[in-house]
Amino acid sequence: MCYQTKITKKKEEMQRHFDAGIKGLDEFEPSEVIKAFDFPKTPVITDEDEHLIQLYQWGLIPYWADASWNRNYTLNARIETLDSKPSFKNITANRCLILINGFYEWQHVGNSKIKYEIGFNNELFALAGLYDHWADTKTYTVVTTEAKGVMREIHNSKLRMPVALYTQHEMRAWLHNQEVVPRYDFTTNPGLYQQQTLF
C-alpha cells in the first residue's frame, strides 16, 4: 500500500519537468512527508489536460457517494480489482499522475519497523492514479500492484507497491489507458526511522 509520499520540489521545477502549466497551486507547500490519512491536496495531472498541474485531494470520493463516505478505504486501489470494485469500476478511464519525488514504506525486521524513503535519486516522477469529482471536490486514489524487486524486501508484510511511472512515455501510456509496466528499479534510503513494536 502507499500512505506517505514526498514532494519537496518547487512549482517551477514541476512545471519544467512535466512540461505543464500550473493552476490553483496557491495552497500547495512542498513537504518531506505527505500523509494520506490527512487527505491532503497534492499536485496531479489528469487525462483531461496533460499539460496542466492541479491540486486534487488524496482519498477518492466516487461521484455517486453521499457525505458519509469513508475515504480511508479509497486512499489506494489495487490494480488487480479496478474493474470489479464499486468505487473504481466506473472510473477506470479517469487516469491521473500523482507528482512526487519519493514515497515511504516500512520494513518489518523482528520486533522493529524501519522506515525507507523510495524513489529515483530524489528526482520527480509520478504514481499512477484514478480520480473522480464529487460535488465541488476533486479527489484521487493511488493505484497499487504486487511488490517486485527491492520492494519485496522493504514492504515485506503486505508485499504491495504503488504503480510508479518514471519516463514521459510511461506517463502518457497511463493517461491514455494503455498498458504500463510498473517501475521497481528504485533507489532507497534505509533507516530513516526505527520503531519498536509491542507485539
Automatic annotation (TrEMBL):
Protein name: Abasic site processing protein
Presence of keyword GTP-binding: no
Gene3D superfamilies in the record: SOS response associated peptidase-like
E.C. number(s) listed in UniProt: 3.4.-.-
SUPFAM superfamilies linked to this entry: BB1717-like
Annotated source species: Lutimonas vermicola
Highest taxon of the lineage: Bacteria
UniProt-listed Pfam families: SRAP
Annotated keywords: Covalent protein-DNA linkage, DNA damage, DNA-binding, Hydrolase, Lyase, Protease
Similarity remark: Belongs to the SOS response-associated peptidase family.
